[in-house]
From TrEMBL, chain A:
Keyword Coiled coil carried by entry: no
Gene3D superfamilies in alphabetical order: 3.10.620.30
Transmembrane segments: 7-27, 33-51, 58-76, 117-136, 143-161, 167-186, 193-214
Positions of the Transglutaminase-like domain: 452-527
Keywords attached to this entry: Membrane, Transmembrane, Transmembrane helix
Organism: Aeromicrobium phragmitis
Protein name as catalogued: Transglutaminase domain-containing protein
SMART domains: TGc
Entries under PANTHER family matching the protein: PROTEIN-GLUTAMINE GAMMA-GLUTAMYLTRANSFERASE
Keyword Iron appears in the UniProt entry: no
Disordered: annotated segments: 531-564
From TrEMBL, chain B:
Protein name (database record): AAA family ATPase
Organism: Aeromicrobium phragmitis
Pfam families per the UniProt record, alphabetical: AAA_3, AAA_lid_2
CDD domains: AAA
Record-level Gene Ontology MF annotations: ATP binding; ATP hydrolysis activity
Residues of the ATPase AAA-3 domain: 37-166
Residue span, ChlI/MoxR AAA lid domain: 230-291
InterPro entries: ATPase_AAA-3, CbbQ/NirQ/NorQ/GpvN, ChlI/MoxR_AAA_lid, P-loop_NTPase
Amino acid sequence: MTNRFGVGAHLAGLVGLIGVLWGFGNVLQGDTWWSRVVLVMVGVQVSLLVARRWHATLAPLAGGLALGLLVVWVFVPGSTVAGIPTATTLQALRQQLSLAIAVVAEEQAPLIPPEPLLTGMAVGFGLLVIVVDALVRSRRLGVWGVGAVFMVGLAIASLIVGANPPLPAFVVTAAGWLALVVARSSAPSPSRVVLATAMGATALIAGVFAPSVVAADLTPAASTWGRAPVDIFGRGINPMLRLGENLRRGDSVEVLRSITSAEEAPYLKVATLVDVEGDTWEPIVNADGLPVEQPLDGLDPAIESTAEEISIAVDDLDSTMLPMPYPAEGVRGLVGTWFWHPVGGTVRSRTDTTRGQTYVADYVEITPDAGQMRERQALLPAPLTRRYLTLPPDTPPRIAAVARSQTAGLTNDYDRIVALQDWMRADFSYSESSPVAEGYDGSGVEVIERFLLEEQSGYCVHFSSALAVMARSLGIPARIAVGYAPGDPAGRTAEGERIYSTSSDSLHAWTEVYFEGVGWVRFDATPGVGRPTGFDEPRVGGPAPVGDLPNPGTVAGGTPQDPQALTEGEQAVAAGAAANAGGPSRSTLALGAAATAAVLLVLPASARRTRRWWRWRKGRDRTEPLWREIIDTATDLGFALPARATVRGQAEPLQGHAGPGLVAVMESVERERYASTRGPTTVLEEARSSVRSLETSVPAWRRWLARCFPRSLARRAE
Amino acid sequence: MDLAAAARALHDNVSRVIDGKPDAIDTAIVVLLAEGHLLIEDVPGVGKTALARALARSVDGSVNRVQFTPDLLPSDITGVSVFDQATARFEFRPGAVFAHVVIGDEINRASPKTQSALLEAMSERQVSVDGTTYQLSRPFMVVATQNPLEMEGTYALPEAQRDRFMARISMGYPDAAAELDMIHGHDRTEPIDALEPVVSLEDFAAMIVEARAVHVSDAVGRYVVDIATATRADDRLLLGASPRATLQLVRAAKAYAAVRGREYVVPDDVDTLAVAVLAHRLIVQRGEPDAELIVRSIVERTPVPAGP
């Protein structure tokens, strides 16, 4: 069997797959990794093409063999003897692949590509090359099958990354598909190859240059317009769960250093969790139906506030979410493109990470006195209140009962929330080794019930979510913040400002409660970490009883926790950098689906347009392309043309629709095909007028249908 | 007068005698122009002879008519040398084939020997009698008729001889209106006698040359070969088209293209003529549909050449 569609179609399929691979670009950082995967893909494709010349049915086998060898040579070269795989190779490969699966299961993205993950991707994409290669040759499945593979590939990429794949990935994939359509179409073979190559090349160039152009349009961190973040928690299925795992893992490293003008180091917030669903709290990805927050708007002028500044130098943290004090007014010195998150006052990026960033954030320390707080209700505008009070329907009533008994006799929201915070700080103990096995490692309401009534021991996830759920059960709007607890003092600058060092152990979660006229106020119920909130009593009264207690570990009745213990897990987070909050929201997915649909809608139309344009060009000195254009137009418009027909046979049903020019074009094409001498003149004008007449001879809806779904693309011309 | 216009004039002229049979007339003109011979297979009395006569008259040619009977001799066809006592020399008395159009009625009723005398003259376009060769006239066309529902005393035309006819047509019964028209026309005058020639013999000879010069592209040539090959491979046929059939189909297509005013053949020409040129040469397996249907289905299956 010969190559039915030529090399062009297969290369187009390969280009499309490379586009899909590009879509995974946000999963892995760095750019050396993908050249190796592409190398494997190209190798497999070449072996398929070569093998097919020899024997068509053997091609997939040859492709599989090439894939195996290439993966071995590229990824585990040390295990071979003179390039020949050995038993060691198999072992190494198996180890790599199981590691890859483990990495995927840990759901950390993006991160520096670990070798096993690359091996896994190379194997996966190598197999895809074989599949697409087979599909390309299929007459019936061909174009649409390959299109489906591309689409699913991009969709998976966007699912894993939690954001739409980068534009170039779309462009390259679409171009590959387009080129495939062209390569399988009816154009004469030399021009087919040229056209396919040209389109592929154009797309590649567009893909390479598009990012810089697009990026130039975005104003860094100047916009509150929410873009989908690359979430710290990868797929974000269960960020709170991840937090727990991360806390239990690895060694502590210094994540960042900060210098602040304030008396105390601020909490640094990374992400906000608003909705509790099932077993966990869900991160807010985009606005998700919430209005854009302006943390300092509506701040009662009577309340004391101090403008502060913190400069932060990030060291070993690779995250797309920026540790920021709350509430922040602005941030300077960031490299790359960063955005305000519409909810929670955090900052994030799609394309850049925190690694090596040095930036200065202006924030406000809000210090009402306790009296002012007591006067205020914890109340949001009505629709928001509902959102921030929602609890799962299966919330055990005992949680609310506990909250009520702990706050019995208290008359305002502030006192109630402080009582709950202080109760947990005093009576509970910190433990990262709480019984994880029985599903305790979560923030869901059932876990909280156990935590509050039985275990009374856990880590920040339990404390922050328990406080938030209890608050909500009392009608107090609450949410969870994820970030870093205040760093440890690490000396002073020459000017006397304090330097703080934040380590990966300081990864933390706390609760925020909304007070009218004050905004979201932090309450931290985790014993031994950070500081509890307790504003000074009004000066009229006695000295402040509680004040800020910057003395972690001494408050609780439980064992003071060695900060080092904390660390174990959080460090893993730091390694991937703060993995945090959240998977692709529904709106992201919907957006992705809509974009894909739009691309799919536009693709055939533009492929058809391109083809027409191409034919008009070629039609200046040849009639054949003009005739094909007329026939394709008629096909698109739904004229019933005989399947096997001579020129006259095809022209017959069009008589009376295509205008007077048709006969001239028909005779010209006949002459061109069958006569010994060329016709004297070009019939370009006649052909154009025929196409116009055909188009105006049908109702407008059929014209549009023809434009969006040109059937002539699917029909392989004779 | 250019070829297409002359052909149109011929057609119009013959139509005055034969009502409602434009396709049969077209094919007859094409065969005459392609220097082929025409086999008309039909029931008696539908105008087979009238068509042949009208055509001959329109090109100002001579017509001979031979009624084939079992006792017809080969010399009746070719001619015979007779000893003339006055001059004491043998003198050649030309037979029936010495005319522009020879009508052989019920050709299948003559003995095979007589049939073959005619068929040899058809392909050689010359006659040898007693060692002397006599050229036949030009144009020369034999229009043979054959009754399909044959009765006693007939000798079926062997396939080798059917092959010498370029095309076979059947007239078919005229529709009612045409038949009524015929009644009135025949009542008033004998129409064939009223026909005037519209093309001179010399002009027609030039038209023949012109038709031969029509271009057949490789693609169309391949198309014809594809069709012929398909008939040979078809399960429903015992005998497919011969190479002579291929050649004659091309020739007929050239004449048809010329009649349509083109100097090149298009596949439509081939399609139009395929049934008339091929069907009578094929032998159909028992129980299969008749040859016309098979040829049509083969043509519909054969891909049309898209380019040069």
